[in-house]
Amino acid sequence: MKARAQLAVELDSRGRSVVRELTSASPLTLMPRRGAVRPAPGPADRAVVHLVNSVTSPLGGDELDLRVRVGAGARLLLRGVAATLVLPGHRRGSSRSAVHVEVAEGGTLEYLPEHTVVTARAEHEAEFRAELAQDALMRCREMLVLGRSNERPGVLRTSTHITRGEVPLVRQTLELGNPRLEASAGYLAGSRVVATETVVWKNDPVEPTSGEWWSLTPLAAGGATASALAPDAVTARYRLAEALRTHPDGKELTEEHW
């Protein structure tokens, strides 16, 4: 299966963030929030779109591509509604997913998908690539679960590339699926869940902070990365929130965490 989805958010004449372009292709289904009973936490002038995995995917051989553009001054919260289950296909071969975002001057993107579970015998490659204007804001979360209950995970390779202006902020690759490496204290220390959130926000932390299996580390060219290890997704999310609370903008950043 090959699928591509596109989303563009811009400011309208009244200064509201509105969806200007939305193209979905199953399993990448984009659903804007309309007529909410009560407003969600956070700025009222932002667009809120939910990313729904509408069929079982990714399977081995699938190729998924999501493109997101946030116009000048616009704000977008793009969040998941359920976990993604990475499964092996009927034929040998890996699945692939790519998320490419662009945020223009003064724009803000919050990309908060739910966790990804890598099941036995699955092979998956995931890429996140972001191009930010110099004064754009962004946060992106990744939570990886190594297998279902009592299951050895398959193989996963994720890469993150973030630039602001023309300056690289993050170049990171993570490979999972090697039991000896995952058991190492210098890698995952036997944890089943690894969570990270990269934050390019209004203020940057001056010094790194850390706690029980979590840390917040400032990046050399601006921004920061929060990381957490845990035995389950609930604990990982709690520890990630603990890390973000130590950020100078921690109150704002933890509003959407639960």
Characterise this structure.
- With 258 residues, this protein is mainly β.
- It is built from 3 helices and 18 strands.
- The chain has helices at residues 179-183, 233-245, 250-253, and strands at 2-11, 17-23, 28-32, 47-53, 63-70, 75-80, 84-86, 95-103, 108-112, 116-118, 123-132, 137-146, 155-164, 167-176, 193-200, 209-211, 214-218, 224-230.
- The strands form 2 sheets. Strands 3, 4, 6, 7, 9, 10, 12, 15, 16, 17 and 18 form an 11-stranded mixed beta sheet that branches. The chain has a 7-stranded mixed beta sheet with strand order 2-1-5-8-11-13-14.
- It starts with a strand and ends in a 5-residue tail after the last helix.
Précis, in short:
9% of the residues lie in helices and 49% in strands. With 258 residues, the protein is mainly β.
In terms of topology, how is this protein built?
Elements: E1 2-11, E2 17-23, E3 28-32, E4 47-53, E5 63-70, E6 75-80, E7 84-86, E8 95-103, E9 108-112, E10 116-118, E11 123-132, E12 137-146, E13 155-164, E14 167-176, H1 179-183, E15 193-200, E16 209-211, E17 214-218, E18 224-230, H2 233-245, H3 250-253
Parallel strand pairs: 1-5, 4-6, 5-8, 6-9, 7-10, 8-11, 9-12, 10-12, 11-13
Antiparallel strand pairs: 1-2, 3-4, 12-15, 13-14, 15-18, 16-17, 17-18
Function: Required for maturation of urease via the functional incorporation of the urease nickel metallocenter.
Subunit structure: UreD, UreF and UreG form a complex that acts as a GTP-hydrolysis-dependent molecular chaperone, activating the urease apoprotein by helping to assemble the nickel containing metallocenter of UreC. The UreE protein probably delivers the nickel.
Keywords: Chaperone, Cytoplasm, Nickel insertion
